[in-house]
Predict the structure.
Amino acid sequence: MGYTPGHRFRRQGGALLVNVSEWGIAVGLVVLGYVVGSVSPSVFLGKLFRGVDLRQHGSGNAGTTNAFRVLGPRLGVAVLVADILKGVVPVLVARFLAGPVVVVIVAFACVIGHNYSLFLRGRGGKGVATGAGAALAMMPVIGGYLFVVFVVLVFVGRIVSVASITCTILLPVLAYVFDQPLPYLVASCLMSAVVLWAHRKNVVRLLKRQEPRFDYPWAKRKRQAVSETMTGEGEAGSAGGRPEVR
């Protein structure tokens, strides 16, 4: 039976012993996952380029959706990419250095770090982008399918939480259908549970039909242009109908 370099076992005196250095690698990888997950690109970029703390604007959530709404599409895309990489990089490192069990724990640590950030006093986002990155690094095909589903649902329905919740539920289902290793299936269930818990308020708003829709940047600009045109025409009409005062 073969194991990856960080997952070798030795039998001595009938007991299964794990190399101490490998325990150190495993612990270090988990800590790395949590610390990297705790870094908040949305808060950092908001303060750097807009002079605002994202936690005090919009929904108050330090996640990608609120970044799009408050910071604009360009910084929103930057936050999205950074949040995804927070899940991809630690998991890929763990896959190279350790076995599947450690990889699973690292993936879970990334999502926990994002949702309960070490640097934001336990606050954070909802784990969708970071969880997607971790899933993509563990199960690329499934991650690709879920990305397509997410984009289609957001484009058609314009409710990000619906797309997020749907993909979160589909993750463990697809992991089972595609016969992924048991550790990855467990990771899918754990990450989905954390992300769904973070969306509990969204579920309540959805049931009450109060969940806001996502505004496409081009649609917002078009409405602003129409509004400005109508305002200009209204002012011109008022000026034209006003009697001249001598």
Observations:
- The chain has a mean pLDDT of 83.
- The first strand starts at residue 9 and ends at 12.
- Residues 158 and 215 are 7 Å apart (CA to CA).
